[in-house]
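Example: SET domain-containing protein.
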Amino acid sequence: MEKLKCLVPESIKRMVGESSDEDLASTSSTLLHCLLNLPQFQQMIDDLADSKNSLCGKNKKVALELKQKGNESYLTAEYASALESYSQALRVAPMDAVDMDKNLVATLFLNRASLFHKIGFLTESLRDCKRAISISPTYAKAWYRRGKANVDLGNFKDAVNDFNNAKSFELSLDGKRHIETELNIILERQKSTSRMAVQENENCFGHFDEPCQLKLSQVSTPDKGRGMASQCDIPQASLVHKEEPYALIILKSCRETHCHYCLNQLRADTVPCTSCTIPLYCSEHCQIQAGGEPFSNFQDKIGTKESHSHSHGEYKFALCSDSNPIECFPEHKHECLGVNWPAILPSDIVLAGRILVKSTSQRCSTESNALCDLGLSHSYTQITPESKLELHMYAIVLLCCLQHSFGFELPINGVSLSQTIILISQIRVNSMAIVRMKSVDDPPDQFRKLTSVGDALTSSLEQVPVGQAIYKAASLFNHSCLPNIHAYFLSRTLFIRTTEYVSTGCPLELSYGPQVGQSDCEDRLRYLADKYSFRCQCRGCSQLNLSDLVLNAFCCVNHNCAGVVLESTIINGETRKLNNFPRAPEKQKFDSHLQGHKLNIVDINDVASLALKFNNSSLHIQPGFCLHCGTHRDLDASHEAINKAWSYIKRLQEAIISKDISGTTLLDASRALGILRSTLHAYNKSVAEAEDNLAQAFCLVRDFQSAREHCKESIKILQTLYDPDHIVIGYELVKLASIQLSLDDPAAVDSTNHLGLIFARYFGPHVDFIVPYQQFLKRVAHR
Ligand SMILES: C[S@@+](CC[C@H](N)C(=O)[O-])C[C@H]1O[C@@H](n2cnc3c(N)ncnc32)[C@H](O)[C@@H]1O
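Written out as structure tokens, the predicted fold is:
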């Protein structure tokens, strides 16, 4: 794409860079004509959209090689490698390929089922057998293997049925006799056991159906456009919104680890797409929902006794569809042609393709003229000239790819291109990042069950983005750096909950990323302007707050003084708030923010009261001078000392990542923390980060007592910068509780109770699905 950009004449680049949403039809058609005359552009479209150049199509030869490799690894007991080979082979094997008179895919499922059985993954084995049987209903070995897995799972009735089927399809007499013997043993065992059968349980989320009964109203605001507000008083932790995505796509970084439909972490028995090698799914349910065909459509007819009716090959649609019917559009189908563009173009462009195809198919029924009319806001006019050129180019490439590979019946002209450019702009402003909670100590490979869980007691949690989606109704929620609602996801469903009491008429606003306490006001404004092209007008950025004042502050050089020293950038930023929003901050804001703190807040109140004394919209604060006693600090020298100290903390961070922490690294970092503490303000965010790094490092060298103290110090600071019951504190308490448990410290009970309350506030009844680790902590702490 970059090379292509260089070939566009400067005059066209300038015209595109200066375009507004009004003249997109003419700018995009000018660029289109220019590109169509470039052989490099034609070549690019051929590479992306022509099936002859496809790298994402099925390939029998490669599948057979991988199968062979898997068999060899299995024989030498290299099970992880065998699993990798079989799964890869399944991904590339054509559904109609035959190997030694058997459907190749069915054989591969069976081989993988045998491997799973060998390593004790019984439900995975059972599911792979089912898949082999649904392709090849008379596959005696698959019935037999399934019978064995059912025996080990205690499902004797099913096992008897499986062995009977295996016996009837087995051709050799010896084989039949062998199965008969096993069958008799099972029948005996069945009589003598009362063991409960283990039920296969696919994607069961208990409280998926929590109703959302609150009515919200759409409001219009002068500074943020449309927004959502409450129509009644809403208690904390209430569900205010629930929605299925209009369109969704997995992020490139998660393609190998998460299901391309529901975005849950893939299990070891991944299910491939039936037509191309790009997506992996966690189940046939997801594979079919995405637009794939059921495996039973590829039934192997070789040697089949057609009359046999197999009652066990059916699919289970356990997730959302039964209880909560959702509109389902086969969103991968038009990409599923083995061509390269869905794998190569950026995720938001492939998402735009999904929306175009979906809305065009719906357009036939609604007879709208717009190619795609989501009715969402966008910020095309505010973006940079480079971004405008990029949007133009991607819109042209996407429409050409859709037309070339999928036969999308749409003239590529100024009108369709301008609508596509606006669509991509809407996606950039309105799409939500779907996140999943990840325990940092999760083993990255699929052999989760094989690794020890003994080290889990020093775990911590983080949120990782896995997908990007458009939720049409939720796009109307505005951003606040001090949000009063919180969004999270179960499978593809978006849930939004209040995190505090919200009174009637109050705007409901979530955070698009940055929050007060996480970074200072200038950083938040920069992030939102860069990513979403708007200048934030939320209360966090328009009213003074303690976090923004102390987050990057220095301490007083006078050891007896707990005062605050600010830099000019912070003072300027805070003064700007007052200039732009000359409303007096309310005194009680500071007080309520500090309620419940048992911390020494004298210095913070100093800052607050000083800030409140502003006159003519300016703060009377001198950079470099203590706000309490007026003593001067040399800020240049302080910066130098901090940078040097921080280099030791950075070294420690690297050592933590490589899990190789030497005594010297730890000692240097401890000394560096001393310098940070004596130079920076007690509530400076960098001190919290350094404390947290030391806590992690001490955990790794198993000095849990030191780890606990550093972890507590870090939490103390964060509780001041955020709300004490903010979700960030919940994550930190997970770390503290796990360290306390490692020390048999009874205080772990308080920590787990506290984190339980915080998570319940953010996730309501879904807490155990989102943070299953907290259940484990609670159980151990209360034991
Ligand atoms: C996802 S949309 C929210 C709904 C939007 N207000 C509308 O009218 O459709 C995001 C856009 O809303 C506006 N917006 C949201 N939060 C804002 C804030 N805190 N300050 C200023 N503008 C905001 C910006 O224009 C942003 O690009």
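Residues 246-299+329-439+453-470 form one domain.
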